[in-house]
Design a protein that fits this description.
With 252 residues, the chain is α+β, with helices and mostly antiparallel strands. The protein has 2 domains: 7-64, Winged helix-like DNA-binding domain superfamily/Winged helix DNA-binding domain (Arc Repressor Mutant, subunit A, Orthogonal Bundle), CATH 1.10.10.10; 72-250, GAF domain (Beta-Lactamase, 2-Layer Sandwich), CATH 3.30.450.40. It is built from 9 helices and 9 strands. A 6-stranded antiparallel beta sheet has the order 6-5-4-9-8-7, sandwiched between helices. Strands 1-3-2 form a 3-stranded antiparallel beta sheet. Helix 1 (7-18) packs across helix 2 (28-35), helix 1 packs across helix 3 (39-52) and helix 6 (138-145) packs across helix 8. The longest helix is centred in the last third of the chain and has 24 residues, at 227-250.
Length: 252
């Protein structure tokens, strides 16, 4: 381990990541068990987070406070993607009447960094910071396709690729063949692989060096939008939108 490594910071971040929508309130014992820390260490971390305003406690259970969002906002502000893309995303939503999102790749997952929803109700509820598997999502495939195949195999070879729906491509060889197609055509379409009844199409957002720093997508219910509409109408509009955003990203 590097001498520059700050173990206390690592432990603090580990404690923050234990909390989730399913585990919003946790006891000291639960935090210690989930993080692998001793009770004494977990207690010090939790009390420090409480003192700094990132957590609160009723004397038995701990929960995070909205101040934790400041950490994520610092990243979003540095990325500045939402400001650059917001107007174009709004126009795309007006055209398609479907939701539009942007995400970045973080390991084997995508993280939502911008989202322009519609008033339509979707089965899946997503917001900024939401995470989804990269291998079975249109934005994830666009971002994985920007990596060399050997890097993709290194990244996904040691993790489980669950069969989330009957149509999910979870064989690594087959997935790499699909990514080669995405790489060549410059966009990805995923039809009911992440969730039954959900289909989407995505394109890369590139910086001045041509690297895909994020992906942009339009997603819809299969009951509202057929594949012909997705390919013939939504895809051209998406690609035009991505091209406009990329032109601004290139000037940064």
């Amino acid at each position: 381990m590097s001498t520059e490594h700050v173990q206390s910071l690592e432990r603090g971040l580990a404690v923050l990541q234990v909390f989730s929508s399913e585990r919003r309130r946790l006891t000291l014992s639960e935090v210690a068990r989930e993080t692998g820390l001793t009770r004494a260490t977990a207690r010090r971390v939790l009390l420090t987070l409480e003192t700094l305003g990132y957590a609160r406690s009723d004397g038995r259970e701990f929960e995070l406070t909205p101040k934790v969002l400041d950490i994520g906002y610092a990243y979003l502000s540095s990325l500045d993607l939402s400001q650059i893309a917001e107007a174009d995303m709004e126009r795309l939503v007006e055209h398609t009447q479907e939701s539009c999102s942007a995400a970045v790749l973080d390991g084997t997952e995508i993280v939502y960094v911008a989202r322009m929803p519609t008033k339509r109700i979707m089965a899946i509820s997503l917001g900024l910071g939401s995470r989804l598997p990269a291998f079975c999502t249109s934005m994830g495939r666009v971002l994985l396709a920007d990596l060399p195949e050997e890097k993709v195999r290194e990244l996904l070879g040691g993790v489980e690729l669950p069969k989330l729906t009957p149509g999910t491509t979870n064989d690594l060889d087959e997935l790499c063949r699909e990514l080669a197609v995405v790489r060549a055509q410059g966009w990805a379409l995923v039809d009911e692989e992440m969730e039954v009844g959900l289909r989407s199409v995505a394109a890369p957002l590139r910086n001045a060096r041509g690297k895909a720093i994020a992906a942009l997508n339009v997603s819809s219910s299969t009951l509202r939008v057929d594949l012909r509409t997705l390919r013939g109408d939504f895809l051209p509009a998406l690609l035009e939108t991505a091209e406009r955003i990329n032109a601004r990203l290139a000037r940064r």
